[in-house]
Amino acid sequence: MTVTTEPYTAAAGLLRSATETSIDVWTRGAKALTNPADLIAQLLTVDLSHAVERYSELAQKIIDADRQIALRWVELLTSLTGTVREQTEMVSHLMSEQADRIADLVSEQAEKADRVATA
Question: What is the Cβ-side half-sphere exposure of residue 67, based on CA atoms within 13 angstroms?
Answer without folding.
Answer: 6
